[in-house]
Amino acid sequence: MKIYTYTKCSTCRKATKWLNEQSIDFEEIPIRETPPSVDELRQMLDHVGDLKKLFNTSGQDYRALGMKDKLPSMSTDEALLLLASNGNLIKRPFLLDADKGTTGFKEEVWAALLK
What we know:
Helix content is 43%, strand content 12%. The protein is α+β, with helices and mostly antiparallel strands.
């Protein structure tokens, strides 16, 4: 299981702390330095079902790039390539396993997903 995080993100720290408390093994990857690949993003899209759920909509890069207006007219491939090139745009934490995945951290969602 992979979890993409940002060290200054308190939600990411809560998520990794929770995984450790549950004794769940994971590989932590820095999302800014090593964003998920297009294939991993496509896999996550299959899990979350909505392209917008992959984006960190409250982030500075999202606002600076005007993504609120651009995203609706972008193709899925264009959006995934953009995300793969800029980890700041990706909603974090980004938890991906072979057959499941989610973005953001809500303890109850993660508990149900990782049973």
